[in-house]
Amino acid sequence: MHVITVIPGDGIGPEVIDSALELLDALDVDLSFDILDHVNAARYRREGCALSDADVARVAASDGLLLGAVGTPELEDTDYVRSVLLRLRGDFDLYANYRPVRLWHDRLSPLRDAARRAIDCVIVRENTEGLYSGVGGNLRASSRMEVAIDADINTWHGVSRIMDFAYQTARREVCLVDKANAVRAGGRLWQQCQRTCAQQHPEISSTHLYVDAAAMNLVTDPSAFDVIVTSNSYGDILSDLAAALAGGIGLAPSASLNPATNFGLYEPVHGSAPDLAGKAVANPLACLLTAALLLRGLGLAAPADATEAAVAGAIAAGRVTPDLGGTLSTREVTSAVLAGLG
Ligand code: NAD
Ligand code: IPM
Ligand code: MN
Questions:
Q1: Which residue among 236, 237, 241 is best mutated to probe the pocket of ligand 2, counting the most ligand atoms within 8 A of its Cβ?
Q2: Residue-range domain boundaries for the chain
Q3: 30: annotated active-site residue
Q4: Known catalytic residue: 240?
Q5: Which of 15, 16, 270, when mutated, tests ligand 1's pocket best, judged by the most ligand atoms within 8 Å of its CB?
């Protein structure tokens, strides 16, 4: 029996997590859930802390974590998101952020040329350092002399292990995306680590793009990509871009992994979508595909395959929410997927 901690979070987080729990209950899998539904913005506002050390201990005692989304417009200036999401990624050293992007149905792509629509790639995002390290601060804050620094931290340890992960994930190519023509020190380290991996994996083709060109190529011909390996901040941005190309962020799953401990934090790429919260129309498919990644991470390939097939079936039948051009609610889409489990 695997124990999964669940943090529904804020906004549409609890709505899409309900769908995922319904799916996992319907599948024949031996899972039990420890639900931390107090970890949210309301608690942060009340108590100044959303995720306590005791909560982290419950996560540590489990075999994986499924998270909806955290964040709310009123708390944007605070450390709330950092104290939950980035703390979990850091405490459990979840350095490999795996973000697969697949075009599930032709009609979802905004690309005009059919030959360029075969989108099936993975964004491998370094998840523990870069601009997200939290190193820096403000000098002479709130004055006209203010200096604000966020250091871009790239360590050999961090870069070499995400590069290894990317090469292990790739089927045919690893494209390193950086900005080494302008941001030199980190760029040099990433390129050096890629050269080492390229020598160890002659069967994988090793390519490189600057991030501006990568953004352009993703739009003009996403079918060219297999694995993109990149830093924390570029990976964040490119994964939203790639998700939009494949039909929208309502379809994009994500896993933050530590391959050494095999622990994973599974969360859709999207956030709490305050504009949709409470309207019962959030697309649950990103969270259902995230549940499929969780199952795969636990070694349960058959129910993961069944979930993905049922999602593809619901999309093909047009049983989708308004963001994908449908008219169904979150619950109705969930029922359509469950009905397709076979
Ligand atoms: P967002 O992903 O919440 O929303 C961006 C846009 O996508 C919105 O128009 C929203 O309606 C739409 N969208 C998102 N998920 C959808 C779904 N399942 N179905 C249909 N449409 C969907 O990004 P944002 O508005 O920049 O951020 C909102 C809050 O979420 C912020 O507080 C942010 O910090 C937080 N956030 C959290 C996570 C996370 O917990 N993993 C990820 C991203 C953003
Ligand atoms: C994501 C989110 C987070 C990130 C935010 C909420 C800190 O955008 O998971 O993509 O940038 O990592
Ligand atoms: Mn993001």
A1: 236
A2: 1-99+249-342, 110-245
A3: no
A4: yes
A5: 270
Whether residue 129 contacts residue 155, with contact meaning beta carbons closer than 8 Å, is answered with: yes
Angle between helices 232-245 and 211-220 in degrees, nearest 10:
10
**Cα–Cα separations (whole angstroms), residue 72 to 11, 110, 187, 203, 236:** 7, 29, 34, 45, 18
Of 3.40.718.10, 2.50.20.10, 2.30.40.10, 3.90.1710.10, the CATH number of 110-245 is: 3.40.718.10
Hey, whose CA ends up nearest to atom 6 of ligand 2?
81
> What stretches of 227-329 show up as alpha helix (H) in DSSP?
232-245, 285-297, 301-316
1.10.630.10, 3.40.718.10, 3.40.190.10, 3.90.180.10: which CATH number matches 1-99+249-342? 3.40.718.10
User: In order along the chain (342 residues), what is the average pLDDT of each group of 10 residues?
Assistant: 97 98 96 98 94 98 98 85 95 98 94 90 98 95 96 98 98 98 96 98 98 97 97 98 97 98 98 98 98 98 98 98 98 98 88
